[in-house]
């Protein structure tokens, strides 16, 4: 038994499935989850001291690499002053000002403690603001695990085969309309029939929870147009894409202004943080200004604000995103060449520092159905071959991967060499 499998078996007695978030359990790839002990830069080390090049980066937050000295220092300094107070602190305003400065669609922002809280709260606000109940989401998109959004969801729910979870009241699920991602005609048709009853559209502007699927030209524009026409709220869930695909997120990259934006991951620098914000007109409906209630004991935790602010400061360095994109492109070109050389049908998607790998005959993957048609068995074998060689990819064919500023050229070359061996095998 490895130390990881020993730890996993102990955990299974006291934690459901041995994990605190299902996708960690390796159900999507088989085998035993690896238990980590420490991390630095592009690397994570397991409990037995084996080193892995990490392409998960804590599911996105570690855009600077793990334990960046300046971030750790900011955390230490803040922690020494007090972990949390349950009362306002100056750094929360500094964070809000920074978010408003970076994302022009946001006039006001509220901090929460996870992406799930951010999307759940944004949904309630959109419903409270419009006085409507129905929402539109897209199949394979994941917006956290609140009831209204756990319908035909992606990520771990898709990996485990429960995209619409038991426990979600049928009456609530009935108000969630799920459409195919990148299908603009379906959006227009649905709004033509039900537009006046629809509170909001929530979308991952680049889908990252059904692997990585970018928006087709015109898709996000269609969402903006129907929301304008029918008075619905457009919510960009940028929990993953925010500060990942560019400093202005997907909204900056594609030039579309949502009414509300949800954030998480990078904004917390690796600590538990989420946020939602948008136009003053909508945000002023939130308590204590307005009637839509939302709260959180640890919301705006100063230590997490310190980690997030330091991260936002460092990623604003000139050329940061060009370098990150170039590295990611280099990695994907190398993987594609290795797959082609071995005669393995393979395709990739990339948006900035976010990527997707597909075992597919199709070269362009833009639809959920295409993702579902990929060869998952082949992915599982690839995943384990990479893991054995010290490369840690997401343990599911339905998750995006992430490159960090800490990945060196040697890391990318070592990953490509490992993939070449895996494809050959
Ligand atoms: C796009 C998106 N929205 C929401 C969430 C939920 O965030 P959290 O896991 O922090 O609750 C996630 C990740 O899990 C996500 O990728
Ligand atoms: N896809 C999820 C986040 O983006 C994976 C993280 C989790 O649910 O544990």
From TrEMBL:
<dbReference type="GO" id="GO:0042286">
    <property type="term" value="F:glutamate-1-semialdehyde 2,1-aminomutase activity"/>
</dbReference>
<dbReference type="InterPro" id="IPR004639">
    <property type="entry name" value="4pyrrol_synth_GluAld_NH2Trfase"/>
</dbReference>
<dbReference type="InterPro" id="IPR015424">
    <property type="entry name" value="PyrdxlP-dep_Trfase"/>
</dbReference>
<keyword id="KW-0413">Isomerase</keyword>
<keyword id="KW-0663">Pyridoxal phosphate</keyword>
<comment type="similarity">
    <text>Belongs to the class-III pyridoxal-phosphate-dependent aminotransferase family. HemL subfamily.</text>
</comment>
<comment type="pathway">
    <text>Porphyrin-containing compound metabolism; protoporphyrin-IX biosynthesis; 5-aminolevulinate from L-glutamyl-tRNA(Glu): step 2/2.</text>
</comment>
<dbReference type="GO" id="GO:0005737">
    <property type="term" value="C:cytoplasm"/>
</dbReference>
<keyword id="KW-0032">Aminotransferase</keyword>
<dbReference type="InterPro" id="IPR049704">
    <property type="entry name" value="Aminotrans_3_PPA_site"/>
</dbReference>
<feature type="modified residue" description="N6-(pyridoxal phosphate)lysine">
    <location>
        <position position="265"/>
    </location>
</feature>
<dbReference type="InterPro" id="IPR005814">
    <property type="entry name" value="Aminotrans_3"/>
</dbReference>
<protein>
    <recommendedName>
        <fullName>Glutamate-1-semialdehyde 2,1-aminomutase</fullName>
        <ecNumber>5.4.3.8</ecNumber>
    </recommendedName>
</protein>
<dbReference type="GO" id="GO:0030170">
    <property type="term" value="F:pyridoxal phosphate binding"/>
</dbReference>
<keyword id="KW-0627">Porphyrin biosynthesis</keyword>
<keyword id="KW-0963">Cytoplasm</keyword>
<dbReference type="GO" id="GO:0008483">
    <property type="term" value="F:transaminase activity"/>
</dbReference>
<comment type="subunit">
    <text>Homodimer.</text>
</comment>
<dbReference type="InterPro" id="IPR015421">
    <property type="entry name" value="PyrdxlP-dep_Trfase_major"/>
</dbReference>
<keyword id="KW-0808">Transferase</keyword>
<dbReference type="Pfam" id="PF00202">
    <property type="entry name" value="Aminotran_3"/>
</dbReference>
<dbReference type="GO" id="GO:0006782">
    <property type="term" value="P:protoporphyrinogen IX biosynthetic process"/>
</dbReference>
<dbReference type="InterPro" id="IPR015422">
    <property type="entry name" value="PyrdxlP-dep_Trfase_small"/>
</dbReference>
